[in-house]
Give the backbone structure.
Amino acid sequence: MLVTIIGAGMMGRGIGTRVVAGGNEVELLDADVEKARVLASELAGQGAGGATGGTGGRVGGDVVVFALPYGAVVEAARQYGEQLAGKVVVDIANPVDFETMDALVTPPDSSSAEELAKAVPERTPVVKAFNTTFANTLVDGEVDGQRLDVLIAGDDDQAKNAVGRLVEAGGLRAIDVGPLRRARQLEQLGFLHISLQHRLDWGFRSAVKFLR
Ligand SMILES: NC(=O)c1ccc[n+]([C@@H]2O[C@H](COP(=O)([O-])OP(=O)(O)OC[C@H]3O[C@@H](n4cnc5c(N)ncnc54)[C@H](OP(=O)(O)O)[C@@H]3O)[C@@H](O)[C@H]2O)c1
């Protein structure tokens, strides 16, 4: 499967690492084409899957991950517009107010994922995933010998299954947590996880994990 990742930053690297480790292909798009190409060539040398990098002209993937700051996601979705139709769109954002570090910037009755769902073409499923896994831990694929849990929310089962297969192929555990509105809880959980990093001096190396 070809996965387009828009944004060649830390999460572009983390998710891209797991995608190629699972034998799938990555297309990295970034306004800074050199940045996208450098990361793509690093990823291509790491896993069984290939990687290419370029600017945001054309979206080739069946799955499209928006690895951008929350403030840029809706605008980017509108920019890509009809190119997204029928693809699986993945929202990974933690829409934290980084000025106050005390709240989310999304409306209380919504989430980043639901706001993105309003911006994509009709019949384009949006899936929430990866917002509770830090970029460095995705590169490693594990924390303390435990594979990472990737919590997945969405209203379209086929779309969630497609993301779940990518997650599992990359050596992580996919957990379907329910409909897209569960993204509200996932984003609050992501916020809590971020807020603990300085308090407990964890250095963004911790993981949210369910055990039984
Ligand atoms: N980092 C984590 O551990 C982590 C974990 C879970 C979820 N997330 C979420 O993942 C998303 C990406 O985070 P990140 O840590 O990967 O950020 P990042 O390292 O800053 O990467 C973001 C990328 O998006 C580009 N970008 C920034 N503003 C843009 C705009 N207005 N339009 C187009 N491209 C833009 C950046 O380019 P420039 O560098 O040129 O600005 C950069 O290449 C965020 O929504 C974050 O909440 C992050």
Summary: Strands lie at 2-6, 25-29, 51-54, 63-66, 88-91, 126-128, 142-143, 146-147, 149-154, 173-178. Residues 183-200 form the longest helix (18 residues). The chain has seven helices and ten strands. The chain has a mean pLDDT of 96.
